Amino acid sequence: MAKQLPRSKVIMHWITATSVFFLFVSSWWMLSLPLPSDVFTYRQLPFQLHKNIGITLLAIVVTMIAMRVYGREQSIQANKTRLEKLADVDHLLTYFLLIACCISGYLSSAYSGWETTLWWLVDLPGWSEENDDLNILFSDIHLWTCWALLAVVALHISAALYHAFKDDGVIDKMFRL
């Protein structure tokens, strides 16, 4: 039987998974909306919600990394199997891409001229005046890191299905609270 994970780690995993799913779906939906104008201002709500969830996700990912690095449950094993090593690479790549997506999205927004208010309570700083070149740069980075993240998430889900069909207990630790 696989070792039980701390409840907080399992909960953060599923909050992350749900958030990533929402962010992908919402991005396709919100980009299909008409550009804002004096008449059409409703586009601000989905963009602001997307940014708020992305920023919150960044905080959760940083917490998950800290738990992985400093957590007592993470033992260093010299004799890891090939699959355990691949799982470590998958997690590191997922964390890196999540952070890159969140930061590039925030920077694109900061240089777009649109304000970001965290959960409609705290105005986050703009880094400069509106700058189309930097907005496009960070928007492109955001786009490509999101596509890479989607590929890594597909790999992660494939590995989860492998373990589910193998019934080796790995999946059980992600569903027990």
Write the topology of this structure.
Layout: H1 7-31, H2 44-70, H3 82-112, E1 116-118, E2 122-124, H4 132-166, H5 172-175
Antiparallel strand pairs: 1-2
Description of the structure:
By secondary structure, the chain is mainly alpha-helical. It has one domain. Helices cover 69% and strands 3% of the residues. Strands 1-2 form a two-stranded antiparallel sheet. A hairpin with a 3-residue loop joins β1 and β2. The model has no long low-confidence stretch (mean pLDDT 82).
Please report which band the strand proportion falls in: under 5%, 5-15%, 15-25%, 25-35%, 35-45% or over 45%.
under 5%
The dominant shape is: elongated
**Secondary structure tally, helices:** 5
Structural class call reads: mainly alpha
Number of strands: 2
Structural domains: how many: 1
Instruction: Give a quick account of the main beta sheet: strands, pairing sense, barrel closure.
Output: 2 strands, antiparallel
Residues in helices, as a percent range: 55-70%
> Strand sequence of the main sheet, in spatial order?
1-2
State Rg: 19 Å
Mean pLDDT: 82
Task: Report the span from N to C terminus.
Answer: 16 Å
Helix and strand run = HHHEEHH
Low-confidence parts, pLDDT < 50 over ≥5 residues? none
